[in-house]
Amino acid sequence: MLKTSVLLGLFLLAVAFVACKKEVPYDQAGELAIDDEMIVKYMADSNVKTLTKHSSGLYYNIIRPGTGTEVLNTDTVYGNYTLKILRDSLPLAKSLDSTFKFMLPGYIEGWKTGVSLIKVGGSIRMVIPSALGYQQRVVTSPNIPPNSILDITLSIVSINKNPK
């Protein structure tokens, strides 16, 4: 009986402890500042001078602006991309043909901002701070840890215009 009471007491203490644990709210501005420092250091260490900082915090380099149709946030886009995490510099995902399809309304802010800077036929390199990416969320396919800075090179092959 005493053993059961002690176990029950420990269980209730554990439940109370877990219930009191508060989730820290995401500090977008603070994380953006941290990521900005890391990106600037990466650029200096890697001798990368071609990235421009967008007002949103996205770093980008337009490789080819494209000559086709302007991409809107409501469009379905077909393209090729390579994704790396800045600290690893290893490709995590790569689309090898033009079958990769995405709808802009469902994508991360940095991706949407970067895509809006080019047209069909264009290519862009985007270094996306975590605040404009997946923030604290864990992505499992491909494996992207929380607060990751993404390095994405994207080429837009074609789009389908969707009604607004």
From TrEMBL:
SUPFAM superfamilies under this entry?
A: FKBP-like (SSF54534)
Q: Where is the signal peptide?
A: 1-21
| Protein keywords | Isomerase, Rotamase, Signal
Any one Pfam family here would be FKBP_C
**Start and end of every PPIase FKBP-type domain?**
74-160
Per its record, what are the GO molecular function terms? peptidyl-prolyl cis-trans isomerase activity
Query: What catalytic activity is recorded?
Result: [protein]-peptidylproline (omega=180) = [protein]-peptidylproline (omega=0)
Q: Which residue windows are coiled coil?
A: none
Q: Report the EC code(s) recorded for this entry.
A: 5.2.1.8
Describe the family membership recorded for this protein in Swiss-Prot or TrEMBL. Answer: Belongs to the FKBP-type PPIase family.
Q: What is the designated name of this protein?
A: Peptidyl-prolyl cis-trans isomerase
Q: Which organism is it from?
A: Pedobacter hiemivivus
